[in-house]
Amino acid sequence: MKRGLNTRGIHGGERPDPITRALKTPIYASNTFAYPSMEDFFSAAVNAYGINPEEFTYFYTRTSNPTTNALELKLASIIDCKGTITTSSGMAAITFAILANYRVGTKILASDSVYRSTNQFATETLPKMGIECDNLDFRDLHSLENQLKGNNYSVVHFESPANPTMRCYDIKAICDLIHEYNAEIKVTFDNTFATPICQHPLKMGVDFEIHSSSKFINGHGDALGGIIACNNTEVLADFRRQFCETLGQTPSPLNSFFILRGLKTLGLRVKEQSNNALKVARFLEEHKKVNRVFYPGLPSHPQFEIAKKQMDPFGGMLAFELKNEEEARNLLNNKFQIIQLAMDLGDIQTLIEWPYIMTHYDLDYDLKVATGITERLLRLSIGIEDVEDLIADLDQSLAQI
Ligand SMILES: Cc1ncc(COP(=O)(O)O)c(C=O)c1O
User: Which CATH number is associated with domain 266-399?
Assistant: First the structure.
């Protein structure tokens, strides 16, 4: 019988340290690992890339490290997949997964509604390398089909719910369409907003599930990290050899330790954040100063039916529109007592930000308009505070504008 998410979060990937019997995985702050002889070194080096992730061996921390490896195994257990690779940040994981799957002579296709730095990578960095990347609205499956037919893609990338608009896309339908058209195309998917608790994209046809573990996965806003999860350990071992070693985007053992610890409460946190977010979303929807709320768990969400099919619960992220830009600015100007104005998400404490001016400040204006990132849209990342306090804080701050 498969164990539950909370049990896997606590026990997955870890065992008492075989030498010291320390119950918690120590921070192995060592660049390298010493062997008594060349023979021992060679026999250890055989599994340094993790073909068999349960029996990892080590020679240099840029490739693999025991603290990081415990984190990778726990992630695989929670995500319920064959293996994971961790990176120094979410952006490292996204760029790594896209580059590792790209094939010369092809192009990349990305949803037009992705995190700003992902868009920057697609529109500024990739063209500098001579790699073309097209953008498309993935809500329209007919235009996606036509786009596939007219081009030669090796990688398709998207995220759902999208940052910051909360747009949701039909993950299974999109993956089926892509793979039926060409099974060689790899789908990379950013699951950061939904977390492995609310949504399981690998089971819907995605080839590589990506997370910024700086967000919900760690949950405490004190360590950056990224994850690539997939169901093929040979591919992951090859990526580790070709990309972890050469691109050097490895996490530090200290950050791996923080994220490993945060991960143990992921299930509890995300369920509480989802409960709080739904209540906050309902409160905002009723508020006369709020124009519109975007939360996948509200029947008013434009893709509610899609979200219901693929998310449970609906996560801790939401967005809402005020009447105009002035009111948005006004609300953010020190009106809050608990909620903090800060450009992060997935933290145990509630954070608010203004995507138009902050996280998505330099996104192409037409793209902002097309994807709904308006001057009056605010993004809320809901924490695990008592929801009555969050609602009271929003109520008093909205009363002041
Ligand atoms: C959806 C999404 N993906 C990826 C990232 C990048 O993560 P990191 O900051 O860990 O590089 C972010 C950052 O905010 C994000 O919101």
Answer: 3.90.1150.10
Q: How confident is the model at residue 49 (pLDDT cuts 50, 70, 90)?
A: confident
The answer to whether the CB of 217 is under 6 A from ligand 1 is no
Q: Tell me, which fold does domain 5-263 have in CATH?
A: Aspartate Aminotransferase; domain 2 (3.40.640)
What's the CA-to-centroid distance between 210 and ligand 1, angstroms?
10
* One-letter-per-residue 3-state SS of 24-83: CCCCCCCCECCCCCHHHHHHHHCCCCCCCHHHCCCCECCCCCHHHHHHHHHHHHHHCCCE
pLDDT tier at 54, thresholds 50, 70, 90: confident
Residue 272 clears pLDDT 80, i.e. is over it: yes
Ligand 1 pocket test, candidate residues 118, 163, 212, 360, most atoms within 8 A of CB: 212
The residues of the chain that CATH labels 3.40.640.10 are 5-263
Q: Answer yes or no: is the C-beta of 195 below 6 A from any ligand 1 atom.
A: no
Evaluate: CB of 193 within 6 angstroms of ligand 1: yes
- CATH 3.90.1150.10 residue ranges for the chain: 266-399
Q: How do residues 180-208 score in pLDDT, each as one tens digit?
A: 999 999 999 999 999 999 999 999 999 99
Alpha carbon distances (Å) from 60 to 33, 96, 245, 249: 7, 20, 9, 13
